[in-house]
């Protein structure tokens, strides 16, 4: 009986571990069958084997490493700049009603402008090199962090602030032990969105400002040479990087929110 229960538990854990792979494996099987059984003769649909071979060629030649590092560097610089400025601005906006009334309407107007509408202006200011791409990514990272930081600061109960003042908390203690832990979930939501938007904006910048290396340029190369195996390989790389970025930030967020709960409990 014990062995049967242990086996069932292991099978349940295996099923939970593999549940995220069910749809990708199903799509891969359909893709392979569509090519193997000639369900279509379109040259757009290439075999998974061809994509694997093209990817292996890119890895061995070092082209994937160069393109991926270029994209990740742009995304990282843009994210750090945009998220840092966004956090500071959102904190300032959320901490002061006067600042919100003075600057808030202008900010809320600017956020309605499509991000891609800024590209011609950025190109005139910075050219079409890395500076313009990083500026574009920074703008993509900026707005979600500002909005969620602002909402996080405004979600702090006034009663908590009054209690902290009764206990004669210094401004730093008030911020670190009351305001920031309460606002942390909203701030991390903004950072999460910001990271996703930064990666998407990196690819969009590379696709629209075509100078230089990058994963976006790999897609352009595949499209211009009608190499669908290269295009599909690029798409798979983009999806994999996005998944890893999401996984890393989610892990950091879970770890940090444990600290938040402990801080609130002490308070």
Describe the overall structure.
The protein is mainly α. It has one domain (54-266): MetI-like fold (Orthogonal Bundle), CATH 1.10.3720.10. It is built from 11 helices and no strands. It has helices at 2-18, 22-36, 48-61, 63-95, 97-110, 119-126, 130-154, 158-166, 171-208, 215-224, 228-266. The model has no long low-confidence stretch (mean pLDDT 80).
List keywords for this structure.
267 residues, mainly alpha, MetI-like fold, 0% strand, elongated
Q: TL;DR of this structure?
A:
The chain has helices at 2-18, 22-36, 48-61, 63-95, 97-110, 119-126, 130-154, 158-166, 171-208, 215-224, 228-266. The chain has 267 residues and is mainly alpha-helical. Helix 9 packs antiparallel against helix 11 (228-266) and helix 10 (215-224) packs antiparallel against helix 11 (228-266).
In the CATH hierarchy, what is the superfamily? MetI-like
| Uncertain runs | none
CATH architecture: Orthogonal Bundle
Q: What structural category do the secondary elements indicate?
A: mainly alpha
Task: Indicate the CATH class.
Answer: Mainly Alpha
Number of helices: 11
Q: Could you say how many structural domains there are in total?
A: 1
Coarse morphology? elongated
Which fold does the CATH topology refer to? MetI-like fold
Helix content: over 70%
Fraction of residues in β-strands:
under 5%
Radius of gyration equals: 24 Å
- What's the number of extended β-strand segments? 0
**Element order, helices and strands?**
HHHHHHHHHHH
Terminal Cα separation, in Å? 48 Å
Largest sheet: none
| Overall pLDDT | 80
């Amino acid at each position: 009986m014990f062995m049967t229960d242990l086996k069932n538990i292991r099978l349940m854990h295996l099923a939970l571990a593999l549940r995220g792979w069910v749809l990708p494996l199903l799509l891969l099987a359909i893709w392979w069958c569509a090519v193997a059984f000639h369900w279509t003769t379109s040259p757009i649909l290439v075999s998974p084997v061809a994509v694997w071979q093209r990817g292996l060629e890119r890895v061995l030649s070092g082209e994937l490493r160069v393109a991926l590092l270029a994209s990740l560097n742009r995304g990282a610089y843009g994210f750090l700049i945009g998220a840092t400025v966004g956090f500071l601005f959102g904190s300032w906006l959320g901490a002061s009603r006067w600042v919100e009334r003075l600057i808030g309407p202008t900010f809320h107007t600017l956020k309605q402008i499509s991000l891609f509408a800024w590209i011609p202006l950025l190109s005139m200011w910075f050219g079409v090199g890395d500076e313009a791409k990083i500026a574009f990514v920074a703008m993509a990272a900026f707005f979600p962090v500002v909005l969620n930081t602002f909402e996080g600061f405004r979600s702090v109960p006034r009663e908590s602030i009054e209690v902290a003042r009764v206990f004669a908390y210094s401004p730093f203690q008030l911020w670190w032990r009351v305001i920031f832990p309460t606002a942390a979930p909203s701030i991390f939501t903004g950072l999460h969105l910001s990271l996703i938007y930064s990666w998407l904006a990196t690819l969009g910048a590379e696709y629209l400002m075509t100078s230089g290396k990058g994963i976006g340029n790999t897609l352009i190369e595949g499209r211009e040479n009608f190499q669908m195996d290269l295009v599909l390989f690029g798409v798979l790389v983009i999806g994999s990087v996005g998944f890893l970025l999401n996984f890393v930030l989610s892990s950091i967020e879970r770890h940090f929110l444990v600290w938040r709960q402990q801080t609130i409990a002490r308070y």
